[in-house]
Amino acid sequence: MNTSNNDPRTQFAMLFTGEDQHIDLIDAALLIAAEHHPEFNLDHCHQQIENLANEARNSVDTSQTTEAIAQDLCNFLYRQAGYSGDHGDYYNPDNSYFDRVLQRRKGIPITLALVYISVGRNLGLEIEPVGFPGHFLVKLVGDEEILLDPFSGQVLNENACRELLKTCTQDSIAFKSEHLDSVSNREVVRRILGNLKGIYLGRKDLDEALAICDQLLLIDKNSRRDLMDRALVLEQMDCHSAAADDLEYLLTLAPPPPVSKSIKEKIVDLRNQGGGHLH
Predict the structure, then answer these.
(1) Helix (H, G, I), strand (E, B) or coil at 92
(2) Mean pLDDT in the chain?
């Protein structure tokens, strides 16, 4: 991708103007980071991935069965290259930024999944994202479908997935076969950004939370949840007019009547408080 003529946000928005299958998932993840890290270098990140894939070629025999390939890929990335889950500082934002995950070799399930996807595809493998509840997985497709857990560097069967679901959700979600389905590129990017939004809101880092809300709304400008979240962030930043604008747009999306009534009351309150400004 050529980033010489556009800032990261413009480049990010351009990725989502077409069909999902044309979205470059790795570039999308990297451009999330580009907006938040001034020192970001896209070419360097791509070179890191290429170097990693070149190393993997010496350890992953792609002529084997799918299960054997999956085992080799886990052995290489988890044990040899050292990409593993950050158990000690799980909610560190660095674990959600793909450039930092490539550099630190630590991450959370979804960003480590991107390492497996990027390296696997460089090796000519068909490897897909799986939006498993509470713990992202990847699926290697060949003579059969094999699930991998990048966080622990393991190949999983269905029973292992059932146990993982119990652990991740405290047994609050019943296992369904659909949990093992591949998900769209948009869903992956939204989940990365959703993780970051939750982290920054929890830290009361409003500037970063606002930037993440903006990125989410570039994917889907009609996302009710993200419009509401951005309005709440703007209100906390004393940007009352901008918050009211978001809520007025939200009304055009026809929320349920009780919600609509609350939103109208909130808009009046925000307008009465004056404009405020972005900072």
Answers:
(1) coil
(2) 94
Tell me what the mean pLDDT of segment 129-147 comes to. Answer: 97
Is residue 88 assigned to a domain? yes
Percent of residues, the chain, with pLDDT higher than 90: 91
Torsion over CA of 269, 272, 274 and 279, rounded to 10 degrees? 0
Tokens 């934002």 correspond to 93
Q: What's the pLDDT tens digit per position in 203-212?
A: 999 999 999 9
> Measuring CA to CA, which residue among 101, 89, 87 is closest to residue 37?
101
**DSSP letter, residue 127:** E
| CATH code assigned at 245 | 1.25.40.10
Helices (H), the chain: 8-15, 25-36, 42-56, 66-74, 98-104, 109-122, 158-169, 185-203, 206-219, 224-236, 240-251, 257-272
pLDDT at 5 over 80: no
DSSP 79: I
Q: State whether residue 166 is helix, strand or coil.
A: helix
Computed over its alpha carbons, how large is the radius of gyration of the chain?
Answer: 21
Residues 174 and 128 reside in one and the same domain: yes
What is the C-alpha to C-alpha distance for residues 115 and 101, in angstroms, rounded to an integer?
8
Give the span between the Cα atoms of 16 and 73, in whole angstroms. 30
The domain in which residue 222 lies consists of 185-272
Query: 120, 123, 81: which is closest to 104 by C-alpha?
Result: 81
CA-CA distance, 102 to 97, in Å (whole number)? 9
Q: What separation, in Å, do the N-terminal and C-terminal C-alpha atoms of the chain show? A: 31
